[in-house]
Amino acid sequence: MVEPYLRRSPLAHLGLRARAASQTGVLQEAEIVLAERPHRCQINLRGNVVDPAFADAVRQATGLALPQAPNSVARAGELRALWLGPNEWLVIGPAGREADLSRSLRTSLTGQHAAVTDVSEARSCILVAGPKARELLARGISLDLHPRVFGPGRCAQTGLAGANIFLEQIDDRPGYEISVLNSFTDHLWRWLERAGEDYRIAVASD
């Protein structure tokens, strides 16, 4: 008999849901809020955005007008596209959308020089938010996160505590979402908690 596939978060062993349930009363006072955003839809997309046929096909499949400015983000409903390079983007959406979205993109891009790769199983998302979030990230990152150069709608590929990450500022709390390879997720979460020991940290649910 074939064993059923059980999708498991790389942070499942930390009991974050139970911790979040016990800390709901302190979220308002927290200087930093950490949350795992498990099983996010994450699709790597490559193609020539200056080709109208490619751009139109992506828009038809996702509603997204792919960003062309370096380190920028485009939004359409629940989907976001992060600029990773002149011909590469990371499309992020809610958990469970990856199969349908990948299929829709591949269908729309049939016959074009493009690549659609579902990386949802390879990467995890962590939220870091709150008034001290920028200070915490600055302890392990060389990127300038000052609001005048890195605000909501900005993203970057960078390193944090020895892990290669995709970093996006999602709001002006400030809130940041980190996409990281599963093999580094536990290391990065533990680093965030250790580096933020002198702040009031709370764990939240997704």
UniProtKB/TrEMBL annotation:
Pfam families: SoxG. InterPro entries: SoxG (IPR007375), TrmE/GcvT-like (IPR027266). Signal peptide: none annotated. This is Sarcosine oxidase subunit gamma. It comes from Hypericibacter terrae. The lineage of its organism: Bacteria, Pseudomonadati, Pseudomonadota, Alphaproteobacteria, Rhodospirillales.
